Amino acid sequence: MAREPEDARPTVPGFSYVPALDGLRGVAIGLVVFRHLETVEAGDVLLQEGYLPGGFLGVDLFFVLSGFLITTLLLREVSDGGTVHLGAFYARRALRLLPALYLFLAAHLLYAVLADLSLAHELRSLASATLYVSNWQTVHNLFTVNEGLGHLWSLAVEEQFYVLWPLALLGLLRLDRSGRLLRGVLVAAIVAICLHRAILWEGGGDWLFLYIRTDTRLDTLLVGALLAVAWAPTARLPARLAVPLGWLGAGVLAVIVLVGRPREGFVYLVGFPLFALASAAVVLAIVDTDRGVARLLAAAPLRAVGRVSYGLYLWHPLAFLIIHRWAPDGTPVPVRVAVGLALAAATTALSYRLVERPALELKARIRPGRRRRAAVG
Fold first, then answer.
1. Which residue segment(s) compose the domain that 200 sits in?
2. pLDDT tens for each residue of 265-296
3. DSSP string covering 71-120, please?
4. Is 80 exposed, middle or buried (0-12, 13-18, 19+ CB in 10 A)?
5. Which tens digits make up the pLDDT trace of 333-370?
6. How far is CA 161 from CA 165, 209, 229, 252, 333, in A?
7. Is the separation of the CB atoms in 242 and 292 below 8 Å?
8. Whole-number Å distance between alpha carbons of 32 and 280
9. CB count, 10 Å around CB of 3?
10. Which of 94, 117, 186, 309 places its Cα 20 to 30 Å from the Cα of 319?
């Protein structure tokens, strides 16, 4: 068996493989999948609350972790050579994200034809997914997004962050290499977005649109970025602080998942920022110690699921919809759920083996080049 490429494994600059980061991804995707299980009965991903209403917050775990890891990589590159090689950065992101997405979109097109869905809506949905603006298509006209594609809103928000954040980070570091300006702007942006979201909610804003709009969700990614900027990899927290911090963060996450509802004001007023801060506490504990919650998250089953979390996120709604649409009448719900999970696991495994792993191997070979350099300072 070929050795897994290093870029497929979650690492933190200055350290080797961090198993608990895969485990955290496993928890995040587990929450999302469990919430969507009701799709096998109701045929809806975005509007149904599912078996675990707070499971939608698993996406926020991904956001915080993505913001942290991307920013640490960018800061390490600046620290090592005073530059960020934007061409290499964007090429690596493309190889990580696009092959699996394009395979999924091709499969969904086949599903749309077989299920007799609107071809016009399908083509529009595929175009917005390819351009990573699915969230804005949903905001503009929810009913033009074909079933099984609504969950791509979160990938759109992340990709918009990936495109803009390196440029913003470089610009801020050009103005102040100490990082003080960068930290201040991040704090101000997070507070501004939280206030913006709260004002829209109090003004009667639609819960779904506040849930998927970039301008109302970017604060969670920026919390991860702020953690990366403030974190010092050479000055780890002692275990006596990191361990209780991790458990405290995990406890807060569990409570919010249990009480959070996507249609209620708590989430939009305080739930999102509180969940992001608790997620950041867990991430900090994970990278600063291998004890406590980090040891729990390093369990092999969680790591295995976390390693394929991207593919599983893509494929599971389509798998559940197939069961919802074509399972024989009278099939018991537990059987539908079991078959839906098995189909999601099978498609995820095939995607990972046939598409994602080869792309990751290519990604690992991309190194910064002189022609793709953006200097700082």
1. 17-365
2. 999 999 999 999 999 999 999 999 999 999 99
3. HHHHHHHHHHHSEE-HHHHHHHHHHHHHHHHHHHHHHHHHHHHHTT--HH
4. exposed
5. 999 999 999 999 999 999 999 999 999 999 888 876 44
6. 5, 18, 16, 26, 39
7. yes
8. 19
9. 7
10. 94
In a domain, 10, yes or no: no
Q: ∠ CA 28-30-35 to the nearest 5 degrees?
A: 105
Reading the block at residue 24, the tokens are 């955290």
Exposed / middle / buried, residue 364 (Cβ in 10 Å: 0-12, 13-18, 19+): middle
Residue 78 lies in a domain: yes
Residue 271 CB-density burial (10 A; 0-12 exposed, 13-18 middle, 19+ buried): buried
Question: Is 272 among the domain residues?
Answer: yes
Q: Which two tokens stand for residue 335?
A: 């059987």
Q: How far apart are CA 22 and CA 298, in angstroms?
A: 7
Two tokens at 158? 């992340």
DSSP assignment letter at 298: T
Q: How many domains does the chain have?
A: 1
Q: What is the pLDDT of residue 159?
A: 97
Q: What is the 3-state secondary structure (H, E, C) of 305-372?
A: HHHCHHHHHHHHHHHHHHHHHHCCCCCCHHHHHHHHHHHHHHHHHHHHHHHHHHHHHHHHHCCCCHHH
Total number of residues shown for the chain: 377
> How far, in Å, CA of 240 to CA of 245, rounded?
9
Over the stretch 3-17, which tens digit does the pLDDT of each residue have? 444 444 555 555 567
Mean pLDDT across the chain:
90
In a domain, 8, yes or no: no
- Pairs from 138-147 (Cβ < 8 Å, separation ≥ 24): 138/46, 138/208, 138/209, 138/212, 139/209, 139/212, 139/213, 142/208, 145/121, 146/108, 146/112, 146/117, 146/118, 146/121, 146/122, 147/43, 147/44, 147/45, 147/117, 147/321
